[in-house]
Amino acid sequence: MNKICIDLFDQGLFSNPTISNTFEFGSIRTIEVVLLVTPSKSDNISDVCDKAQDPNFCTSTLGSAPGAKTATTAGLEEITLSLTEASATATNNKIQELLAGTKDPNLQALFTQCGIDYKDASIKLQQAKNYLANKQFVELAFTANGISNDGITCESSFEKGGVTSPITQQNNELSSFSDIIRVIAHILAGGSL
Length: 193
Fold this sequence. Notes:
There is one protein chain. It is elongated and about 50 Å long. It is mainly α and 193 residues long. A two-stranded antiparallel ribbon has the order 1-2. It is 66% helix and 4% strand. The longest helix is centred in the middle third of the chain and has 29 residues, at 105-133. The protein has helices at 2-10, 43-49, 55-64, 73-100, 105-133, 137-160, 168-188; strands spanning 22-25, 29-32. The protein has 7 helices and 2 strands; from the N terminus they run H-E-E-H-H-H-H-H-H. It comes from Anisodus acutangulus.
């Protein structure tokens, strides 16, 4: 569009491209110059977070992430994957500490199961990064669902075991991050998922 406007200006079809919004071809035709406004990259956070299941979590997390305000949509996905990986790693470390600190066989089994779930989530996050790099957005969205399920499985293990989960917040966070990954994958795919 910019090249068209410059070409028309160079041909003398309008005198001031910053002021004129119409020009004439002959005596009867008038064509309006439509200015396309490209959203700024900081709007990408709003575009994503408005579609997220937890917009507040999304906005506060991405809004405070270094580089997110100027990132492209694909860049936001990279940032989200990195944040999710850091969160999953921290949660798995906490699970391992809780496992090492208990002698209760029921809790040991629950923490062991959650450790397996978070190891699976970490593997899926590596797959997700590969899918993003290869622009395989449908696969990326499905992988995000799997990552979310790992947190859900961990949490439901505690519920089934009749024990209050000490990592409910982290499991919910994993699901929230996974939702953001899925939303961005959907946007990157052109909304065709």
